[in-house]
Design a protein that fits this description.
about 160 residues, alpha/beta, 6-stranded mixed β-sheet, two-stranded antiparallel ribbon, about 35% helix, about 25% strand, globular
Amino acid sequence: MSNSRTRRARKLRLVDSQIEDELVNRALRVGFATKNQQHVDQHFGSCASIAIYLVMPHETHLHEVVAFETANQDGNEDKLAVRIEALEGCAALYCQAIGASAIAQLKKKGVQPLKVTPNMPITAQLQQLRHELRESPAFWMLHALEAEKDASRFDDMEAEGWVE
């Protein structure tokens, strides 16, 4: 009996202790469905990889790239679970196309799915995100930033010497 469930093929995580310590808790984590790590050029359900960036108002950093086994756009939802899992902690996913079921599953996990024009350069989208963070953040950005602040408040209290 064969298992039709799609698996993650590779995961590359860029580790820089300064970036990890200073940015991970203050940055938006945003994913891009991509084949070449240059463009948003994939349907979420069958994307070859997801590039995850840490985005702040004045800087961005590639955080990790998760590659997947080949998947067809065939209506088989088994392939979605591994892709959704890869977006853990992300505020948004940019993709060329996405199905209704995937949208619902991402929203349930707190990930805002966003469709962009075909072959949108990731760098252009990152630049737009930084501008939006500085000038007038979208509701999903404000919500994600507030959730991150709430999650880290206990760490802040502990650093200040609070005890139970």
